[in-house]
């Protein structure tokens, strides 16, 4: 079969099937493909294109067949000026397995550069995105660079097919970075180094394929281990007091007895005041105070924090089954739901307004603390319940803000 002539798809498939079982045919195809250079004539370029086309139709698995030619294929990709041969070479390279330790920086630079070229054919840009993901997926700092590159691509420069492909790559990056971010919180000595590579800078980017910008702010969403100190202390203390009978009796019991020694009347104001901090998040923005996020993101972050916080709260209530101080048969005491609601709002107020308006953060935490105290005063909760409610609330907001840049839609 003359590779320098025009071949039909039937010819290509027959040639690919033959190459799968005949190493001589396969070697001839690779020789024809890899011999194409800048000075090659029309016949040689057509032969190289037909050979590459046939190799892309190799039956699965193609990896073991292509593996010996990995470096040669990369060299051809970086040197050829023929767009068809470039696209077909990328098609072959994306089918290969790329070990973690084998990162070709020259290939990655090529893919990132060609992703940003509006004049590059859409298919090549799409394949560059896939190739870049394959090379970067083991390294958070490279994933972050790729994510930024994808966000800078103007959606209108892509046809629907490549846009869908790049969105799929972007979603894979988000999931990978979210997982790495969670591992960073549990990874001990490597957490600081990992989170430095995941930290966002205040940069304006365009949302790829979603039609609008998101998370536009000067707020640093990066995970910081220091952010675990306060909620971790509260949660640990609350858990230990609840779990150890001696501590539960001498700390929770003593505080309850002290509060009830005044024979306080039952007040219901805490049933309503618990929502004041959450309501203030939006009320303050409505009257003109500048928050860290715009309306859409502020709503999503608040909703996400509430979903996480209440999911933890309700799960622990049924899992721990701690009896209430005024009714031991009602085993839904730990942690306090009212305190959770109040401190969710207070922590969001601190994150959104605290830097510019410190008084807002102080007021939010003052109200939340008042709600927590009223729960003990009304004999509805133990001290450890309100401590746990506060700790889990702060932690829930922190998790939502840390993960938000990698889960945005």
Q: Provide mean pLDDT, rounded.
A: 81
Principal-axes shape call: elongated
Tell me the fraction of residues in β-strands, as a range: under 5%
Q: List SSEs in N-to-C order.
A: HHHHHHHHHHHHHHHHHHH
**What separation lies between the terminal Cα atoms?**
51 Å
What structural class should be given to the helix and strand makeup? Answer: mainly alpha
Using only CA atoms, what is the Rg?
Answer: 30 Å
How helical, in percent, are the residues?
A: 55-70%
Largest sheet: none
Count all strands and give the number. 0
Describe the protein in words:
There is one protein chain. By secondary structure, this protein is mainly alpha-helical. Helix content is 66%, strand content 0%. It has helices at 9-21, 23-34, 42-55, 63-66, 70-79, 83-93, 105-115, 122-136, 140-151, 160-186, 191-198, 229-243, 245-260, 270-273, 276-286, 295-320, 337-353, 358-377, 383-407. Helix 1 packs across helix 2 (23-34). It is elongated and about 100 Å long. The two termini are 51 Å apart.
